[in-house]
Each structure stands twice: as structure tokens, then as C-alpha cells.
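Fig. S4 source data, part A: sequence.
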Amino acid sequence: MKKTTTLLADGRELHYFDSDDAPARVAEDERVLPAQGAVSEIRRDALTDEWVVVASHRQDRTHLPAAVDCPLCPTRDGHRTEIPDDDYEVVVFTNRFPSLSTTPAREPLPQTPWSERRPGDGRCEVVCFTPDHDGAFSRLAPDRLRTVVEVWVDRTCELSALPEVEEVFVFENRGVEIGVTLHHPHGQIYGYPFVTPRTAQLQASAARHAERHDGACVACDVLAEEGAGPRGSPVPRVGSPTCPWRRDGPSRCTSFRCATSTTCPAWTRRSGASWDPCRPTSWPGSMRSSASRCRTWPAGSRPRCAPDASCPTCDWRSSRAVGRRRS
């Protein structure tokens, strides 16, 4: 895979990810755009003890434009978009309307004993899977799916190295019912300045399981139980998706060891496409993955397959170099 990095007209980063024989990406962004200056903040909810992102400037973001005005298509026929080149394979760029800002706060935020506020420092990126406006993630070719997975790993490692980022959250939303504002196939990546409640809950659960079961990995044990039970077949060692019996939604599916698995593109595409025949239109939903700092493990409770060890089922090697834990 070949990576080419450039800057958009307002200074935001853009990365082309192409096959090795793809043409050089030399087009420049010729739009006239105002400089990035929006500032967001995070506020701690005293009732739930959770951080909430507040970004009022996102009210002005692009909302369900016509196909001819899509900002995620390549620049063609005089229509200038977020992607300056007239074609691409996979592209990642900093969101023009980010929930989390790279712009420092201009002045200290007022505080109260029950309402802590901090600058919303972080990173929000857009991932374009295909130049085809009417395409879909579930219809990507296997080699393009592999590129997307490698892009997720690349961006997770790079954003994890930023000092302000505590969790990297990769996701794709489908359908206006979910809140999609652009129809072009794309996903997003958030670099949060805090660990989100869901990830913190998963970490705490894994830590308790390890403490109770002599350092055992809860993901490994769940996969073993699924494979040995009446619903399953022997679980493969890599790229293991499971739809557990205790799921909290009609189509929830959980996977382990996605980023290092050669089977990840195949099952990812199947999981995205398998529900489409159930509805006359594309099935609305989300696909999510996250990575957060290892330092949040309670002392002495880290499972054996955390970064200081290895496990045949869930492999942590892809995030070990930057000191992050997959969850």
C-alpha cells in the first residue's frame, strides 16, 4: 500500500492510500476556504460522571446534498470537492466540521464545582472507501477491503501517538435513520481526549474477568464458549466474529483480532451485506472499533493477552508499538 499526504486549501491534512502501482497524487486543492478556527469543548455531566462533547459549529455542516454537490466524490468536471484528485482508492482527511478540534482554546473555560469544562482537543477524520457515489462498503472488492483495514490500522496508530488522544474510535454509519448527513460511502475516525463509557465498561469487565480467572482473557473465553456451544462451530484462530445470545440488538455482531487478521475483509463485508435483503432499502446501522490506552488497566488485573504477552486467539501486536489496547 502506498500513502501520499497533502494539505487542503484550509490547512487540513489529506492522505491518499493506494495500491503500489497507482498513479502519483499531485493535484492541489484550488478552492478558497476560510482557515480552520472552530473550537469545541468537553463538559463533565455531574449526574452520570461522563464527558460530553459540545460543538455548536457543526450546525453549519453539509447536510444531505444532491449527488452533483457531493463533497466526497473526486474533483471532476469543474466540481471541486474535498478530494482534489480526479480519482482515488481510499482517502482520509481531517473533517471540515469536526466535533473535536485541533485549534487551541483562546481563553480558559469558566469552571464550577459541579460542572467541569475542558477544551475539546482531539481529532476527527473522514474515511472515503470508494470514489463511486452509489457504492457501498459491503460491495467493495477484497483488495479494496484489505486497503480499508490497513487504513484503519494506520490511522489508529498515528492518532494514538497524539498526547491529547485517549481513545481512537473507528466507525461507519449507514442510513439517515442513524444520522448520516452524506450519502457517499464513508466512515469516520475520532480521537477522543477521554475514554468513552462503553470502552471503559469493556475494560473494567475484562479486568474483573482476568482477576477472577487467573489472568484469563474474556474475549478468548467468550469465543471458546461460542465455538463449543450448540449454536456454533469450532472458532477460527483469526478474524472471529460472533453474534452472542445475550446481544442487545437484533443484528449486533462482535469480532476479535480484526486489525491483524487476513480474514477480516471477508467477514466484514458479509456482516455488512447480510441484513440488506431484510429491507427494501439499505439497512441502517453502525460498524465500530476502538482502541484506548493500556494504562487504564487496574494494577495486577491485566489479562495475559494484553501487550506484555500474547494469546493464540486475540492478538495485541498491532497496537503494542504505540502502547494501546484494542477493545
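Fig. S4 source data, part B ends here. The radius of gyration is 21 Å.
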